[in-house]
Amino acid sequence: MTTTSENRKIRAAVVREKGGLFLLEDIELNTRLRPDEVLIRIVAAGVCQTDAHVRDQDLPVPLPLVLGHEGAGVVEAVGDAVVSIEIGDHVVLSYPSCGHCHPCLQGTPAYCEHGMQLCFGGSRLDGSTALSKQLPDNSPELIHGHFFAQSSFATYAIASERNVITVPGDLPLELLAPIGCGIQTGAGAILNSLQLALGTSIAVFGAGAVGLSAVMAAIIAGATTIIAVDVNDERLALASTLGATHTINGKKEDTKSRIKEIAKSGVDYVLEITAHPPMLTLALEVLGPLGTAALIGGAPAGTKASIDMNTLLAGHRLRGIVQGDAVSQIFIPRLIEFYRAGQFPIDKLIRYYDFKDINLAFADAKSGKTIKPVLKMGVA
Hints:
11 helices; 2 domains; Rossmann fold; 27% strand; alpha/beta; Quinone Oxidoreductase, Chain A, domain 1
C-alpha cells in the first residue's frame, strides 16, 4: 500500500440537521486504508435525489453526515489487497456491495444483502467512520460518512475497490461523475433489466436524469415508440430532442387516454420513476398484454400503491429495479463508448456548479431548473 499521513484535512459538505443546509466545513479524513479501500481526490460529484431524501431524513441516516454518491476523481492511494486500481487512475464511483453474499456471487451485486447498510448505514459495515472534526475543546466529533461507500461531497473520499471504476483519462471527470448512479440506473433499466427488443414500445414516467437516460438507452435498444411523461414542458422538449417519439404533460393531458391513443393495445413496458403511488397504479393500467411495469423511484418507507389485481391477469409483470441491474465495472465503460459514438449525449443533461454553491445546486434540481447538477471540486 502507498502510505499517506494518517489524518488529512479535507473540505466537506456536512448535513447537521433534518432538512438543513449543506455546511462546508474543514474536517479530518483518516487515511489509514483497509486492505480493500481506495483513497480518491474528488474532482466532481453529481447531485442525486437520493441525497436530498437523506438530507430531509425521508431515508434516515445518522447525522451529522457527509453525503454524495456520484463521485469522480483521481486515485491517490490503494489498500494492500487492491489489484484492479492503480495510483493516478481516473475513476468514477458507483454503488457498493459486499462481494460475498448470494446475490453478489450470482452476479447481481445491486441486490447485495448488505447493500442497504453499505449505502445508508453512515459508516463502514463494522460501524467505524473515517471522518471526524476537532472541536474547540480538542475533542473529536464523529462525522458519519461512507455514504454509498464514498461520501463524495468532499475534496477527498475513501471508497472500496468494488465501487471504483477506472475510466479513460481523456474525458472530463466532471462529465463522467453522474454516470455512477442516476444515469447508470436509467440506461441499465432499459438495456439490462428490461432488455428492450427492436420495435418495442415504452412509456417513461419522469423526465429527469434517470428518465432521460432511459429514453436515450431506448433509442440504442431499437424501441420504436418511446413516450416521455412529465409535468415540465422544457424537460419534455429535451426528451423529444433525445429521441422520445411522443411526450405527455400529465398536468395538461390525461396520461392514460393519450398512451392508449398512441399505443392502441397498450405499451410493452412502463418505467415508473416518480415514486408517486398513483403513477405506479397507472403504469399497470396502460400496459398491453404480457407487458412489464418496472419501478425505479424510491418512495419514503411505508408508501403503498393501490393495484387492481385483475390487471395482472393479462400476463402483466411488475418488478423493482436497483441501479439498472448494472455490474458497474462492465456497464459504465459501455455507456462511455455509447457517449463517444454520439448515441448517449449525457452532456445535454448536466449543469456545473462550484462546490461552494452546493445548496443552489440542490435548489435548482428541486425546482426543475437543472436536470443533473454536477459539483466541481477541482480539476484533474
